Amino acid sequence: MYKVSMRVDGMACGACVMKVTSCLEAIGAKDVHCRQIDGTTSFVMDSKPVLSDIIHAVKKYNYRPFDILIEDTGADLYSHSVLQASPEEAAEILNELNSMSEDDKKIVRRETVNC
User: Fold this and answer.
1) Partners of 34 in the beta sheet?
2) What is the pLDDT at residue 24?
3) For labelling alongside 92, which of 14, 24, 48, 68 has CA 20 to 30 A away?
4) Which residues, in sequence order, are CB contacts of 2 under 8 Å at separation 6+?
5) Distance of CA 57 to the CA centre of its chain
6) Cα angle vertex 20, ends 96, 115, to 5°?
7) pLDDT tens, 44-83?
């Protein structure tokens, strides 16, 4: 199981929280918790989350995800930072990054620098 925590910019009301919750559940997220005050969002997934799926799901409603952290609850901390990844994970992350749009790459670059 994987625990994902992130922040979502733009959630201003209860309806925003419901939209973000719904779009994350559509990609397999469970136990979604969103706080509109600071944008803190967390959820769990049974299968390994795909960073681009998370980004696209949230951006679908014009919200901006950032500070995305993925933790494998059965293993060590796993984040989408090549500096913290094993060689195999780094290759997988780089392949995923290469398939992303330029806008999504900017989100990832900014957030991996801030890790």
Assistant:
1) 41
2) 96
3) 24
4) 44, 45, 46, 47, 48, 49, 70, 71, 72, 73, 78
5) 9
6) 50
7) 999 888 888 999 999 988 998 888 888 877 654 444 444 4
Q: Which domain holds residue 43?
A: 2-113
Bridge partners, 40 (sequence order): 7
CATH number where 51 lies: 3.30.70.100
Dihedral through CA 75, CA 86, CA 51, CA 77, nearest 10?
A: 30
Structure-block tokens of residue 33? 């918790």
Q: In 3D, which of 56, 52, 34, 30 has the Cα closest to residue 43?
A: 30
Number of domains in the chain: 1
Contacts of 1 (CB under 8 A, 6+ apart): 44, 45, 46, 73, 74
Q: Whole-prediction pTM value?
A: 0.65
